[in-house]
Design a protein that fits this description.
about 375 residues, 16 strands, alpha/beta, 4 domains, Rossmann fold, five-stranded mixed sheet
């Protein structure tokens, strides 16, 4: 008696997988133009709903999981296929001493290490190699991709002999609801009780018309809403906004094992994936440049603090995110400092002249600024 529901569930899952495959094929074979814009938009909406259904079913499966506590000034995840050299790269960047082997699946748990660069302490995580189908639950893929969502930067590590792996990794990360090197679309959707769908746009829309927007919203059971669009979005970006569950992360693409490749093999791989950097973790080639790239792509800045009538402490800066303000600085130092703030004097690129008196907490700080806070 108990076997029948399990069989029915498996059959239902198989049907969902088949429908997903059908829609993916339809979208890939459809030539995008004004005439097909509407149909492709609806296909993508239907596909997103089916993927959500598939994820919600597999979410109920309990696994061992990986317990990783974020630490340091930022977290970087090394993402790549098994045996691509993640452990070797981790050891080159940090003092993690991750086990290294020349065979696949050497890393069976998450190995953390700390990269020290320009006073910043950056957490680097070596996760088990991702394989095709990870986002759908193959192997430990879903657990690995869940860790990625909580990171601050993804480092795609691609072996020079397998540049084709990059597109697979991109798809897995995309299917796991992570958008790399993108910002959240500037779109606001406010549901209403009546009045239908009202669309207001401050820019010319070249990839979607109002009819397509309305029908995509209706696919997600939104019949009444005020929609404000402030950038030229496509169907994928509209769907991402509707679902509201996407993580937007910066990413670096690194080509590894260049010491083992011929000039032609290296050029071929570089032309295919256009990496940010080509390195050899084994031979320590390009590692210094990679450390600098990680720091800059994370968007970290160093702020040096100074007491009144004393020299600035240039040995121990406060590490903050690019775009941080004096308010952020006060809150990081002590929760009461923002309320007791009188003014600050700043030396650096963020002011018109050195030692300038700043009265506003909203003043943005720049890398290597020296700040003297005056508190009530």
């Amino acid at each position: 008696m108990n076997e029948q529901p399990q069989y029915a569930k498996k059959e239902k899952n198989d049907t969902t997988v088949e429908k997903i495959k059908e829609l993916e094929d339809l979208i890939s074979k459809s030539k995008y133009n004004k005439r097909t814009q509407h149909a492709i938009g609806l296909y993508k909406a239907q596909l997103a709903k089916l993927r959500d259904k598939q994820k919600s079913r597999s979410a109920g499966k309990k696994g061992e999981g990986y317990a990783v506590r974020k630490t340091g000034d930022g977290t970087v995840v090394l993402l790549g296929f098994p045996s691509v050299g993640k452990s070797t790269l981790l050891n080159a960047l940090t003092n993690a001493n991750s086990r290294v082997g020349s065979y696949a699946f050497t890393t069976l748990t998450v190995i953390p290490g700390i990269l020290g660069y320009r006073h910043a302490k950056i957490q680097v995580l070596d996760v088990p190699g991702v394989v095709h189908g990870a986002a759908a639950g193959t192997g430990r893929g879903k657990e690995v991709l869940a860790i990625i969502r909580n990171a601050d930067l993804i480092l795609f590590l691609i072996e020079v002999f397998h540049p084709d792996h990059f597109s697979t990794l991109q798809k897995e990360v995309y299917d796991a609801d992570v958008r790399v090197n993108q910002k959240a679309p500037d779109v606001k959707i406010v549901k209403t009780s009546r009045g239908g769908i009202n669309i207001g746009s401050t820019v010319k829309l070249t990839k979607l018309d109002n009819k397509t927007i309305e029908d995509i919203l209706k696919e997600f059971k939104i019949a009444n809403a005020n929609v404000t669009i402030r950038q030229d979005i496509d169907a994928d970006q509209l769907i991402d906004t509707i679902e509201g569950n996407k993580a937007y992360l910066p990413a670096i693409v690194v080509l590894n094992k260049i010491d083992m490749a011929s000039n032609d093999e290296l050029k071929n791989a570089q032309n295919k994936i256009r990496p940010d950097l080509s390195v050899s973790a084994e031979k320590n080639i390009g590692i210094g440049e990679l450390k600098s790239l990680i720091y800059n792509r994370l968007g970290l800045i160093s702020i040096f603090l100074k007491e009144f009538n004393k020299k600035a402490d240039m040995d121990e800066p406060l590490i903050m995110w690019k775009g941080a303000t004096l308010r952020d600085l006060c809150l990081k130092l002590h929760k009461d400092f923002a309320n007791k703030f009188r003014f600050a004097r700043i030396w650096g690129k963020a002011v018109r002249f050195q030692g300038m008196k700043i009265l506003k907490l909203g003043h943005k700080l720049e890398d290597d600024d020296i700040v003297e806070l005056r508190i009530k």
